[in-house]
Amino acid sequence: MAEVLVLIDSADGKLKKSALELLTAARSLGEPAAVVIGAPGTAGALRDQLAEYGAAKVYAAESDEVADYLVAPKAELLAGIARQASPAAILVASTPENKEVAARAAFKLDSGFLADAIEVNADGSAKQSIFGGAVTVSSRVTTGIPVISLRANSVPPQTAPAAAELVTVDVALSEAAKAAKVVDRVSEAKGSRPSLQDASVIVSGGRGVGSADNFSVVEGVADSLGAAVGASRAATDAGWVPHQMQVGQTGVTVSPQLYVALGISGAIQHRAGMQTSKTIVAVNKDPEAPIFELADFGVVGDLFTVAPQLAEEVSKRKG
Amino acid sequence: MNIVVLMKQVPDTYAERKLDPADNTLDRDASDAVINEIDEYAIEEGLRLKEAHGGEVTILTMGPDRATESIRKALSMGADKGVHVVDPALRGSCVITTAKVLAKALGTLEYDLVIGGFEATDSRLSVLPALVAEATGLPQLSGARKVTVDGSNVTVERVTEAGYDVVQAATPAVLSVVEKINDPRYPSFKGIMAAKSKPVTTLTLAELGLAENEVGLAAATTAVDSFEVAPPRAAGVVVKDDGNGGAAIAEYLASKKLI
Ligand SMILES: Cc1cc2nc3c(=O)[nH]c(=O)nc-3n(C[C@H](O)[C@H](O)[C@H](O)COP(=O)(O)OP(=O)(O)OC[C@H]3O[C@@H](n4cnc5c(N)ncnc54)[C@H](O)[C@@H]3O)c2cc1C
Ligand SMILES: Nc1ncnc2c1ncn2[C@@H]1O[C@H](COP(=O)(O)O)[C@@H](O)[C@H]1O
Questions:
Q1: Separation CA B57–CA B148 (nearest Å)
Q2: From the CA of A263, how far away is ligand 2's center (Å)?
Q3: What is the interface pTM, i.e. ipTM, of the complex?
């Protein structure tokens, strides 16, 4: 059976949920082979989890240097491994960085790239949802190796024990791959909430929240639901929450099981990032707010009374 | 400091967008066409860098005939000239081909920075600037919310999942920007008048040294086999808060087995 290369995302020695989803999806195409690119020791720490989720092989491309440069080293290493392995497909999780890595690898491999698939099939074809979910297309890579980015929450992760045989990959980066140097890495993340990209429940706040302090109301609902916290551009522009929490056209695109919008009007650029969420709940004091056109359940009211009650009620029901 | 801005003309996102059932490509005639919104921020950033460091701003686009309207709009904002890659054979090109074509067009220009937008509202790929960096062999600095140029060094703040990275490269380099970077100006009356006489060059495939069979739908690395218009989202329930709005949501979530 041909290998299917899966680019692995991890944090603090743990696989991201997206990696579990990719390994599960890869099994329908061939034999999953994990590609771990990172500092020395990264692959070793992940090996047990990779084995549990079906990786027959683990390509470990480890060096302290890869993290020092943007995107290009990962693309070079991924393409290099693909040249050796001749995989049936390459799968990555749909994050902005992975999409760039995958597209550049596809370019090097004279192959095609499909972004944001919601389903991959045994023959390497994929389904994509476009125009904000209005149209679903069936597409295919026609040249070379199918390189596909898969949207989070598209495939429920399932275990399937495998050998996870470690294969060490020689990391010798070209000069060209070292052109864009990461000189500083600034963390603005707070708390231990799930990341937006992976979360199956997201609670977002907008201009209606009113201030940074008031965001505790949004966080209260998120904590009761075990959710990630997101925001509209109005809230990130105001500096109430960091920029990386922005959901939308120029922020993160999410597709969780549940999206709760508090004090968000539902501008087209915000909708672009969340309208394919499975269930959408909105609280807004303006009955005309466009977010209600999308909402499966909406409450016209003041978020400062509705949201705390919701958090309390959820906590009560959870016992 | 000469700057090339990658600008795409896209169907207006406020209008309904359609695929052409004849060949499953985007129906670019079905709706009004506008400058991809975030590319206006790329143009603005180009203009600001020019104002600070001198030089010229060139708008580069690959697109159908009507893309000239968008080039004129960019020129009315203050860009100096336009380069329009236009050829019937380009219709249906995949993003990898588009990057190759734009890289060829860049080869005819002199520049220190290439600036694109974070994402086109039609393709929603967010990869073209990275691919232009790949095709030209230049450093990639994408997703910038801040750009600083110091001599032949360019530094950006790139938004990441955890916060942001500060990334640095030597010029020439390829950037893409997010909307946090600036507030694009509106064209002034004077700018609109001046734009009419600014030069717009067209480039055909032959002029770029590319053959027809290297581009377009037939050479695309991906194909759309079929498409389905999804049923519209079923209308939801909207209730007025009567003092129990929060509890009503919890009840709804429980009924959906979401809690
Ligand atoms: C190029 C570009 C890119 C963009 N990218 C993004 C993006 O990625 N993400 C994004 O979100 N936006 C983006 N925007 C901005 C977008 O157009 C909107 O301006 C933004 O989404 C508005 O945020 P908001 O809904 O929080 O604010 P508003 O539109 O001001 O809405 C606030 C809402 O809160 C309600 N409200 C106020 N007080 C209360 C209360 N006490 N209780 C209940 N409801 C209340 C109001 O009725 C109102 O509907 C982009 C814009 C551009 C031009
Ligand atoms: N045909 C094109 N001509 C010029 N620039 C383009 C073209 N397509 C995409 N771009 C640029 O690439 C950015 C990202 O596009 P995309 O990768 O398609 O989401 C856009 O914001 C533009 O700056």
A1: 17
A2: 32
A3: 0.94
